[in-house]
Amino acid sequence: MRAVYLIASLTLKETLRRRLWIASLLASLAVVGFVFVAKLGASVRPNDPIVQSVVPRITLILGLDVVKFFGSVMAMTLASGAIALEIERGMLYAILYKPVHRYQVVLGKWIGVLVFALVNTLFWTVLLYVSVRVMMGKSYLETWRAPLVVLLYPILFGTLTLFFSTFASVGLTIALSIIAAGVAWSEKPMREFGIVFDIDTLLNVANNVRWFVPMNHLRRWVLEEMMVIVPERMLASQRFQAFESPPRGWEIGYVFGYIAVVLALAMLVFGKRDV
Amino acid sequence: MTEYAVETHQLRKVYRSRLRKQVVVAVDSLDLKVPQGCVFGFLGPNGAGKTTTIMMLLGNVYPTSGSFRIFGEAISSMSVRRRIGFLPEKFQFHDLLTAEELLWFHGRLAGMDRHLLARRVPEVLEQVGLSERARSRVREFSKGMQQRLGIAQAILHDPDLIILDEPTSALDPLGRRDVRDLILHLKSRGKTIFLNSHLLSEVEMVCDEVAILRAGRVQRQGDLDMLLQVHPVVDVELRVPSERVMQAVRAVSSVLSEDGTSFTAEVQSEEDIPMLARCIIEAGGEIMRFVPHRESLEDLFVRVVEETK
Predict the structure, then answer these.
(1) B61–A99 C-beta distance less than 8 A
(2) Is B309 part of any domain?
(3) Whole-structure pTM value
(4) Does the structure's ipTM exceed the value 0.90?
(5) How many domains does one find in chain B?
(6) pLDDT of B101 higher than 80
(7) Pair (B79, B194) in one structural domain
(8) Distance to chain B for A266, nearest Cα, Å
């Protein structure tokens, strides 16, 4: 395990020295800025009890979407260069001949990339909750499980990108990751259009797409954990219920299994390829 | 215990491009035997398959067929990997680390403990002339300094087989001399050096054995002195060109090149050199210059590559 630890530490050290914390800082400002803008919006009607009740809750729900986005993008950015870039630049040659198994290189990179992405995602989440508390005077600590699910976003996309990185060039890795994220994102609109316009084909495609990149399982799971603060009117909507059925236990298991299988595939593919 | 550091048997690597339906044979039926403790020159023109061979020996590229052993073991063995040091041709390191940090990382990865590294890191930095830059980040280093650092990384864990792929490509003449001295020092300690270089004069100075590769196949392999003693060559300049003299010269040697009053002749052995001079004089030739010389590695390399085209 020493090799894994060494490679993970190196990846983390390089990330810190590449000043990626500046990007993290900018994302933090965006999170705080988002809450601030929402507060400004709410302050237009200070005496409307519905606005004062709904806006903080919507801010938190949408704020978590912002955090998910930044966390996923950061993990994808780091993972896209983790192996492909080091092969292209020739950095891995001095490592791979050492008494190190290739799966240890992949595992070390995976840990290094994800530690940085997860620490940042956690930081932005805490910042979001603190901002809502400070600026809007509301704390929703009962939703504490939702941020834990949000942490799975960078793990999912970081793992997938690292897998692409084991066999593709940097450019192709980035392209494949964007396509994967796009496919995952398209599930929700396809499902919505399918239901609204009663198009079975769209629903079928959406049902199949969800297995390729199971992001929507996570999204629905986050929403399930946030349900206690989802405004009543929204909850009552039939359409909302049709779109957002809560995930079943095995779907959650599928997400964990998916991540484990993709990581195992990354190790297998990198172990078999010529470098 | 095997007497060979590297032994390959019918090693072959074929690259297939499915899109373009192209097949490139990078290495073909490669049989190499590198004795332990020698400096082995691995030569060949660009695209001959040298780097592919090295990558296969290191386990980075999988052979299509054939087999090889390093110190009698497969490269998948972790114990044999501990005995290898490698400087890649395309050397680039994690450049945000300092030289010291980088060597600590590679040393730990090679299985060295902290006490040993605390002693070895300053030692190898001194050996490659970088001790004053130990705490500088690698990105501040020139190409030559990075290559020196790469050599330090390759010898840090005191390996028995050191594979150097173009170790002096970025170095100035002084740096090249340092690397030459280092290679000879390592050899004196019983290490095996597998050297891939285009600088044939350097190779000639340090190598005991060479293999010349072309189109993925070994064309010549053996003891360098034996290979170079095959055909002595004589450069001759006459006062005036004479067909009679040239006929006499052709009778005892083969003329490699002819240009007005000058020609280069190849004789079968060193004993034939005085006979060549006698023939020229007896045929009425007036010799202005007569320079016998042993074939250099460069001559041999060019000849082998030309012959096998």
Answers:
(1) no
(2) no
(3) 0.87
(4) no
(5) 2
(6) yes
(7) yes
(8) 17
